[in-house]
Amino acid sequence: MTTRTALVLGATGGVGGAVARRLAAGGWRVRALHRDPARVAMGADGLEWVRGDAMVPADVTAAAAGASLIVHAVNPPGYRGWDRLVLPMLDAGIAAAKAVDARLLLPGNVYVYGRDAGPNPGDDAPQTPRTVKGRIRIAMERRLREADIRSLIVRAGDFFGPNTTANSWFSSALVSPGKPVRRVLDPGTPGIGHQWAYLPDVAETMVRLAEREADLPRAAAFSMDGHWDPDGRQMVAAIVRAAGGKVPVRRFPWLLLPLAAPFWPLAREIGEMRYLWCEPLRMDNAGLLAFLGAEPHTPLDRAVRETLVGLRCPPA
Length: 316
Fold this sequence. Notes:
Blueprint: E1 5-9, H1 14-25, E2 29-34, E3 47-51, H2 57-63, E4 69-72, H3 82-100, E5 103-109, H4 132-147, E6 151-156, E7 158-160, H5 169-174, E8 184-186, E9 194-198, H6 199-210, E10 219-223, E11 227-229, H7 234-242, E12 249-251, H8 257-260, H9 266-272, H10 286-292, H11 300-310
Parallel strand pairs: 1-2, 1-4, 2-3, 4-5, 5-6, 6-10, 7-9, 8-12
Antiparallel strand pairs: 9-11
Helix pairs in contact: 1-6, 2-3, 3-4, 7-11
């Protein structure tokens, strides 16, 4: 059997790392692009680290030689320069996919949907920009469709998992990485549902889809259900249980975000996403179920415990 090769852009991040490890565990040869491979553990998790810049098309194309899949999971940390860097990075990935005839996998999210998509948008629901990041996400998906390459978009809710980055609500707001859970910040609105996605489940879904290459349409897009928190209280309750059940829950200080913005760049980005905590928006995974038959799903309590361990927040 011929070993399949994948190039992962953003393998040091949450989604990219999870997908890279799952691909390697499944027998894929996985290359991971990094500007300074000496800074990462060479050979860790079965990955082959290669030097290159995701902003440079020639670097990405060279690293993609022989690959049938390119995972485009690279993002500027902390959303710094997001509006200037994201699309050029995607263009480099598209150029590489064209050059080597690979499918480009793009992790998507709920930002592309606004009120007119309804409370349960499907894969083909209308996309109207609601925020700056939403408009950029829509532009990314449009860029893929117009590029006429084989593409795969998998949209999911707010990420959490053992290697969640600081861009995540879970690790940047609900708990403090590297510290025991002594309190939980709750950004939700009572009675309003919220959609979460456990990174190992996301990675498993993406790899299962990628391994069905022969059955995928040229431009494929799917939405995950993930962990739906119907009243906005289940995730917080799971964290409290994992921490021993005696942890106070505080309201997230939304009103203080404008004051924190000059000192905390992520504050502005967090404030822009408040609408997702004020109205329910649950992406419909009917298309995914029809294609795969089932969606990978880790029970919430187990997923939360593994996340806290991975973030060095010792659970009880």
